[in-house]
Amino acid sequence: MFHDKVQCMRRVFVLMGLLGVLAGTTRAEVGDKAEIDGVVYEIVKEVYKTPQPPLEYPKTDEVTVAKACKITNLPTNGIVNFPKSIVVNGKAYEVEILGESLFEGCKDVKEVYVPASHCSLYNKAFKDCDEIRLEISGIIEYVGKEVFSGTRIVNGLDLSKAKGLNSRALGGCKNNNVTLGMWLWQMADHVFEGSNIEEVKFENNECPYDKMILKFHTRAFCESKLKELRFPQRFFGLATGCIKNCENLERIIFPDIETVRPLGCVMNSGELEQPPLLHETNKVYSCKNLKEVVCLGKNPIQFYFFDGLLTDVSILDDYSSCVLKVPAGSEEAYRTDPVWGQFKIIMGFEPGEYTNINSVYQNSNQNTDSIEYYNIQGIKVSTPIKGQLYIRSNGAKAEIVVL
């Protein structure tokens, strides 16, 4: 009888093992693929980073999601509606990744809709697609390299819910402007290089971690076509050499905030020159057409690295011709500040003067009645003398002239 019981138990264990094997075949594993409605999906693990202020570094969460990795059959109308989730071997997975080169070179795609609550755009996902309409409903966790190169997003490049822009993320993009938002907490190097983007708008949209520092990396605005750079109304950090070789840049505007975090050489691209960048101590380099830097606050922005006040920060590599514009009445406070006082020319502006301006030359038709002259110390001159060097101000436009 004991022998019979042992044999019975063995049969039970064998059956349990078989059931386990059968059950295992109904579960999708990382690396498994499935083709659904003309799209090949792969089950992958993704790591999301979420800021957790006031802590300095974000927390990481590993998730298992579906990545669209290949288009095998594009609809004849060129419209691709990704599902919010797919079911593989009986289990549902959110479609949260558009894979590398997913639509690269596809001229027939016209519209793409991504309804997932989170989304990552891998390198070159929409490269060389000419013109498409793109709507992403959720948070954009990651924008990879050259995602929109050779492509124009016809309904506007809205990245107001993007968390991170990787190196050369917008490189080669044909759009003239882009909207970013409070979700952004990292802008890597050479983001705009080779793009047509002339304007960056920072939208003050709702975000649960808006007090997290936004880090502008070294070379973040390198070789961009921006005419004006207006920093957002939030806590941010500026790395060494953040703005470089921007030939079209005419104006930089700092918001009315108390502090900015000065950062050293911060890069995440293996393609950049090695840190002999250490010789660069300024935030702005080789922007030969930069005419003015504007500070909207009456009190000079202080540069704090954690709890330490730094007074040896340098904004520009050349102070000889760029004017610092500050609220009228605060000129002396800026002149005596160790950082902002490095500007040789500091002038006051009236309230509202820089509220809604797009470029240095917005007021192209000069009104001679509003022209004012200042000496190079920024003191107003009622009767300028011919042959002398002056700053001529006409509304939001200021230039150095010899009468």
Topology of helices and strands:
Layout: H1 2-24, E1 33-36, E2 39-50, E3 59-71, E4 79-81, E5 85-88, E6 91-98, E7 111-114, E8 118-121, E9 130-136, E10 139-143, E11 151-153, E12 157-159, E13 164-165, E14 177-181, E15 186-187, E16 199-203, E17 214-216, E18 228-230, E19 236-238, E20 243-244, E21 251-254, E22 259-262, E23 282-285, E24 292-295, E25 302-305, E26 308-310, E27 314-316, E28 323-327, H2 331-335, E29 345-349, E30 371-374, E31 380-381, E32 389-394, E33 397-402
3D structure, described in words:
This protein has 403 residues and is mostly beta strands. 7% of the residues lie in helices and 37% in strands. It has helices spanning 2-24, 331-335, and strands at 33-36, 39-50, 59-71, 79-81, 85-88, 91-98, 111-114, 118-121, 130-136, 139-143, 151-153, 157-159, 164-165, 177-181, 186-187, 199-203, 214-216, 228-230, 236-238, 243-244, 251-254, 259-262, 282-285, 292-295, 302-305, 308-310, 314-316, 323-327, 345-349, 371-374, 380-381, 389-394, 397-402. Strands 1, 2, 3, 5, 6, 8 and 10 form a 7-stranded mixed β-sheet that branches. A 7-stranded mixed β-sheet has the order 13-15-17-19-22-25-26, with no helix packed on it. Strand 5 (85-88) and strand 6 (91-98) form a beta hairpin. The longest helix has 23 residues, at 2-24. It is elongated, with a radius of gyration of 28 Å. The chain starts with a helix and ends with a strand.
